[in-house]
Write a structure and sequence with these properties.
alpha+beta, Glutaredoxin, Glutathione S-transferase Yfyf (Class Pi), Chain A, domain 2, 2 domains, five-stranded mixed beta sheet, 5 strands, 53% helix, binds glutathione
């Protein structure tokens, strides 16, 4: 397998999951601004939307959409420790969180993180919406160590997105449980390894 990624982008969640399940994979770094891979290929030829994450499987088929890729990767582990067994309540909870993070958090950050032309008023509205989401997450994480009970791909995804707060100067100090969860996820050996491999930790 080959994961096309950009350091610290949403592809980090899939990167973490690949490491957590012990998959064998190569990393291909993408320059999102220039739409090129580190080998100089035109990334738009590989991923017409220009988005990471993109996962190329052994049969060379190419797949996108982080939430779907996270489910696929979690299922590579026969014990399905990161997602729960099909049909179980645990799995439903993980899928709920993946969908929530994808639609309510990830895309809440995106307009002002990636597109500098976004108007200030839109940025303010996105910031206010994120504050509501963080308050909700803080309450959930005051009752549970991880989003869906046990550590899952939802935590890898949530960690990746909430981590953008650092880049955008959003302090997490008013969300102590969210902050503690970020530290808990960050401390996992495979999360550390992924951060290091992306050049985000020395
Ligand atoms: N719907 C896609 C969105 C992926 C996405 O937003 N990727 C960002 C990085 S986090 C990207 O590649 N942006 C490049 C661009 O907007 O040109 C998913 O959930 O995987």
């Amino acid at each position: 397998m080959k994961l096309f990624y950009a350091p610290g982008a949403c592809s980090l969640a899939v990167h973490i999951a690949l490491r957590e399940v012990g998959a064998t994979f190569d990393l291909v770094k993408v320059d999102l601004a220039r739409h090129t891979t580190e080998a100089g290929a035109n990334f738009l030829d590989i991923s017409p939307r220009g988005y990471v994450p993109l996962l190329e499987l052994a049969d060379q088929s190419r797949h996108t959409e982080g939430a779907a890729l996270l489910q696929y990767v979690a299922d590579l582990d026969p014990a399905r420790a990161l997602i729960g067994q099909p049909g179980s309540r645990e799995r439903l909870a993980v899928l709920e969180w993946l969908t929530f993070i994808s639609t309510e958090l990830h895309k809440g950050f995106s307009p002002w993180l990636w597109h500098k032309e976004t108007a200030d008023s839109t940025r303010q509205a996105a910031r206010a919406k994120l504050a509501t989401r963080f308050t909700e997450l803080d309450a959930v994480l005051s009752r549970s160590d991880f989003l869906a009970g046990a550590y899952s791909v939802a935590d890898a995804y949530g960690f990746t997105i909430v981590n953008w707060s650092n880049l955008l100067g959003i302090p997490l100090t008013t969300y102590p449980h969210l902050q503690a969860w970020m530290a808990r996820v960050a401390a996992r050996p495979q999360v550390q390894a992924a951060l290091r491999a992306e050049g985000l930790l020395s």
